[in-house]
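Open question from group meeting: does this chain pack into something compact, or does most of it stay loose? Before anyone orders reagents, we agreed to write out a predicted structure and look at it together. Recording both the input and the output here so the notebook holds the full record.
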Amino acid sequence: MYRRRPPQPRLAPSLEAQLYEGFLAGMSCEDVSAQNPGISVGQVVATRIDCQWDERRRRYLEDLLLRAGARVQQVQLEAMEFLRLRLACTHKAYTKQAKKYLQTGATRDMPERLLNWREYKDTMELMLKLVGKDAQGPTQQHLPSAPPANVEVRVSVEPPASGAVTPRLASEYLQKLEAERK
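Structure tokens returned:
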């Protein structure tokens, strides 16, 4: 049989707000009481009921869900834009320098790397994951296993293991391309 204690004075609003924050963070009434010596579990339960903590938490979570979805989408789009810009800068700078180097063969025209190949690969993979087209993504299953019949695919020259493009290698590559055109 339960015995009802005489009514206890209400907790101060600032203390109630502090206890509610603990409840909102996932603490049970017992946990809230244990973190606040001098406040009994009964006081916490009474405050929970009187101040409608459960209803407040439900409304808060509904509102958070609505706001968070839009914010997550915004952050995802901003991240994709950042990665797109990073890759675009690398492409523009590297392509221009690479063409100049292929033309002159001069060391001074060797492209500077804005991203090393590992960073480039990681950036590209992250970008694909953000848009849902990574290797495990849902759209991967829709990619064709072979190129369409009207597309010719040639692989003539393997890049060296070191990753460096030498003037000799560039020259050989250009000669092979020219020979394939004839």
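Observations to bring back to the group:
Residues 13-51 form one domain.
The helical segments are 13-24, 29-35, 41-50, 53-104, 117-130, 167-181.
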